[in-house]
Amino acid sequence: MTLLLHKSGVGGVRAELDRSGLQAVLQTKQRVLQSQLSFFQSQEQLQSRLTSLPPSPSPHLLLTAIRNSPRKIAVIVEVARLTPAESPEDLAARCRKYGRLGIDAISVCTDEETSPDGLADLKAVCSVSRVPVIRRDWFLHPLQIAETREAGAAALPLVCTVLGNGLPALYSYAHYLGLDSIVEIVNLKDLEAMSQLGIPLYGINLSIKLSLPVPGLRQDVAKSLLQQMPDDAQSIVGILSLDEAMELKSTGPSALYLRHNIWQGTKNGELQDEAFLRKLLKMLSNS
């Protein structure tokens, strides 16, 4: 699957998705989803399950948190179990510490590649978090959105490249439930199509990996898309390092998103996560 970086490319450079990896992940997700759907005896039963769920009593918490961040740029940290043996309660305890450091939102990985029980992780974190919680997964069906709302999360990502024409229906259902959808885009074609729908929250370089032949082009793609954002839209940009955060902070993102495999982990047997976060938050607060 080949993607072009402006209407047909940024500077004529082509970028490709990590196609094999993405397809494998989506195939796994489809198998899990089919297993879940098989418990419903009829389409009417499934429809009843989806329509009986009440909207969130506190809608659109993520958008509010981004707009009201005490810094010019909000910080969202993605978390996942450090090992399969880590319990949901242990993960929640770590997230409580991150919240006290001053982050604006937490994103919990619930996909099969990162957790043996992602929904349990999500529920545990939602139960203790004082900041909005995002469920980070691959969303293909409204049932997943219903589960997200029931777990207590405030937001979820919808990926244009994955969902195509099916994205508006999932977006509408999430909006009805009071959840914020982060609509992830990879090029100006995506942005133009979504702008017509009045999407208020966009994601760049969050879950989709691009194979780019030129060093630094990944950041250039993000900068190009940020410059084209609708005036009233909020933008979340994924970063891979503190240096990248420094480079992107002046280009106008509403929030920076830190992937779990970048900042979680140990050094000399000690967790480095809180030290990394303190550096990032101090850097942004001083900007």
Structure in a nutshell:
With 287 residues, the chain is of the alpha/beta class. Helices cover 44% and strands 18% of the residues. Helix 4 crosses helix 5 (118-128).
User: Which CATH architecture is right?
Assistant: Alpha-Beta Barrel
Strand proportion: 15-25%
CATH superfamily, called what? Aldolase class I
How do the SSEs run, as a string of H and E? EEHHHEHEHEHEHHEHEEHEHEHEEH
Question: Number of domains in the coordinates?
Answer: 1
How many angstroms separate the termini? 39 Å
In which order are the strands of the major sheet placed? 5-4-3-11-10-8-7-6
List keywords for this structure.
Aldolase_TIM, 44% helix, alpha/beta, RibuloseP-bd_barrel, TIM Barrel, three-stranded antiparallel sheet, single chain, 13 helices, eight-stranded parallel sheet, lyase, 13 strands, 287 residues
Topology, please?
Layout: E1 2-4, E2 14-17, H1 19-37, H2 43-51, H3 61-67, E3 74-79, H4 88-101, E4 105-109, H5 118-128, E5 133-136, H6 142-151, E6 155-159, H7 160-163, H8 167-176, E7 180-184, H9 188-195, E8 201-204, E9 210-211, H10 217-227, E10 234-239, H11 242-248, E11 255-258, H12 260-263, E12 266-267, E13 270-271, H13 273-285
Parallel strand pairs: 3-4, 3-11, 4-5, 6-7, 7-8, 8-10, 10-11
Antiparallel strand pairs: 1-2, 2-9, 12-13
Can you describe what's shown?
- The chain is an alpha/beta fold.
- The protein has one domain: TIM Barrel (Alpha-Beta Barrel), CATH 3.20.20.
- The chain has helices at 19-37, 43-51, 61-67, 88-101, 118-128, 142-151, 160-163, 167-176, 188-195, 217-227, 242-248, 260-263, 273-285; strands at 2-4, 14-17, 74-79, 105-109, 133-136, 155-159, 180-184, 201-204, 210-211, 234-239, 255-258, 266-267, 270-271.
- The strands form three sheets. It has an eight-stranded parallel β-sheet with strand order 5-4-3-11-10-8-7-6, sandwiched between helices.
- The model is unreliable at 1-16 (pLDDT under 50).
